[in-house]
Amino acid sequence: MFSKDKKIEIKDAETVIGPSIKVKGNFHGEGDIVIEGNVEGSIKTNSFLLVGNKAKIIADIEANDAQVGGNVTGNIKIKGYLEITATAKIIGDIETSEISIEKGAIINGKYTMLKGLSENHKPSSDK
Amino acid sequence: MHIYIYDCFINQKKYDAITAKIETRITDLGLNGKIIRLSLMNSLDEIIRDEIKKGAKTIIVVGNNTIFNQAINAMAKTHHELSITKRVPLGFIPVGKDDNEIAPLLGINLEEAACNTISGRIIKKFDLGLANDYYFLTEAVISTDGTKIEIDQKYVIQIEKPGNIKIINFAVNTKLPPSISSCAQDDVLDLFIENKKAGGFLKKNEDKSSIIPFKFLTILNQKNPLFIDQDIKITPPVNIQIAKQKIEIIVGKGLNL
């Protein structure tokens, strides 16, 4: 699983959308994805997603873990850990198990913590 | 039987000494076979098709990247058209240092030293790309100017800065990030978009490239053609996909994938 200390570099990713690229449609990958350009539609990966500082995304996002530093308009659904850095500007709902938000980030939307939900709904026999 | 096909340029007198050495080495190793010299009067595609039909054990091309790439297309087409399940392997004896970048990546040394590779007969299976109806092992290139790309019929890519678009199966002239496998054995092709870097003494030399793995894409461009293996020109629209056909190549021990 993605560690909070992990710093993905562009050279490590299987898919890189560079700053001069605009993607329109359903962009679904299997490995780590780095987005530095523009995406409109939807983004999905079962691995790690890095949204760079200059990225502009108008799309719903689904990933295992993610780091967001760019502009995102759309809902973000992360199974594991989501790191939002100071440069991020997010308009949309966020759903994740773990989160960190750096001072300066702008977020407008509903936030749901999946981890808390699952604990509250544990059956009594488990306690 | 081994079939040796010599490229046209080998017919020049200056290559006589090299071919004599190759033929001596072939005899020493007991790899004798039929020698066919390409000329304006015969076609590589037809020769390969005929010899495979006649039951060739190995096709060995003697020359440079050009004949090697053309042989790959001809062999893949022949195997497909004749529905051959037991593939005939392709051997390669590179002659001359110019235009011979593929051989070292396959662990094949130049000229008579390549005969040892043929003798060793280490056969590896490689994926092929298929651009419309042309099979390729290495790379296809088109300018970003006026190009639109549709991938896996799911999304469209627009490129906003000038540069080159490469479709890579087996990287020969492109340095890819270490995480990308470009050894033609992963059953995917890679779309590599390399933008021209902004010049200037004080400008930071940032990495502006993009890379996207895919299985099927369509290239649209009304102005520029697509070049395959730096040789074959195809006018868009071009559908590029990972081919069902594979190719078996005799490689050296120093295979550099």
Mind sketching the topology for me?
The complex is a heterodimer of chains A (127) and B (257).
Chain A: E1 15-17, E2 21-29, E3 33-35, E4 38-45, E5 48-51, E6 56-63, E7 65-68, E8 71-73, E9 76-78, E10 81-84, E11 89-91, E12 94-96, E13 98-101, E14 106-108, E15 111-113, H1 114-120
Parallel strand pairs in A: 1-3, 2-4, 3-5, 4-6, 5-7, 6-8, 6-9, 7-10, 8-11, 9-12, 10-13, 11-14, 12-15
Chain B: E1 2-6, H1 16-28, E2 33-37, H2 44-53, E3 58-63, H3 65-81, E4 90-94, H4 102-105, H5 114-120, E5 122-131, E6 134-136, E7 139-143, E8 148-151, E9 155-159, E10 163-168, E11 189-195, E12 210-214, E13 216-220, E14 226-228, E15 232-234, E16 238-251
Parallel strand pairs in B: 1-2, 1-3, 3-4
Antiparallel strand pairs in B: 5-6, 5-16, 7-10, 7-14, 8-9, 8-13, 10-11, 11-12, 13-16, 14-15
Helix pairs in contact in B: 2-3
Summarize the structure in words.
The complex is a heterodimer of chains A (127) and B (257). Chain A is mostly beta strands. Chain A is built from 1 helix and 15 strands. Chain A has one domain. In chain A, strands 2, 4, 6, 8, 9, 11, 12, 14 and 15 form a 9-stranded parallel beta sheet that branches. Chain A is globular, with a radius of gyration of 15 Å. Chain B has 5 helices and 16 strands. In chain B, helix 2 packs across helix 3 (65-81). The longest helix of chain B is centred in the N-terminal third of the chain and has 17 residues, at 65-81. Chain B starts with a strand and ends in a 6-residue tail after the last strand. The A-B interface holds A 10-29, 31-32, 37, 41 and B 154-161, 163, 177-180, 193, 195, 207-213.
